[in-house]
Each structure stands twice: as structure tokens, then as C-alpha cells.
Amino acid sequence: MSEADGKRLLAAFGVSVPRFVLVADAATAGAAALVPPWLAALGMTVSSLLVTLNALRLARVKGAAASAPVPGGDLAGAPT
């Protein structure tokens, strides 16, 4: 990459990032005005519960899969 390319890349990055931040801030402010705080708290609680329950489900499925026999027998001699 030439020095000119590097300068153009930095200039584009310097213009794009502040625009993204402004748009994200505007979207957050707009959502904050539309959603009452109690509903936002309820949504975050439900989201956290779903993530936790999914992690527990995956851990249980992984544990069951680890103890289950592998179809096709022993794969120790299989090429990698």
C-alpha cells in the first residue's frame, strides 16, 4: 500500500466513524423516547434468561453427546 493510499484510508475512516457514532446515538435516543424504562428492563431480563437457558441447554446436549456412542464404531484409525 502506498503512502497516498494510507492517507486516503485514514481520511475515509476519520469521516465514517464519527458519522456512524452520530447515527447510532440518534437511534439510541429515538429508541429511548419510544420505550418506557420498565419495558426496557423487562426486555433485558427476558433476554438474559433466554441466553442463560440456551447455554444450559447446550451444555446438557454437549454432555449427552460426549457420553453417547459414536455411530460407525471407533474412529481412532480414521484419517484426519
Characterise this structure.
- With 80 residues, the protein is an all-alpha fold.
- The protein has 2 domains: 34 residues; 30 residues.
- It is 79% helix and 0% strand.
- It has 2 helices and no strands.
Keywords:
mainly alpha; flat
Tally of structural domains? 2
Oligomerization: single chain
The total count of helices amounts to: 2
Cα-based radius of gyration, to the nearest Å: 25 Å
Topology order in helix (H) and strand (E) letters:
HH
Low-confidence stretches: none
The coarse overall form would be flat
Q: How is the main sheet built? A: none
What is the fold's blueprint, element by element?
Layout: H1 3-34, H2 37-67
Quick gist of this model?
The protein has helices at 3-34, 37-67. By secondary structure, it is an all-alpha fold. The relative contact order is 0.04.
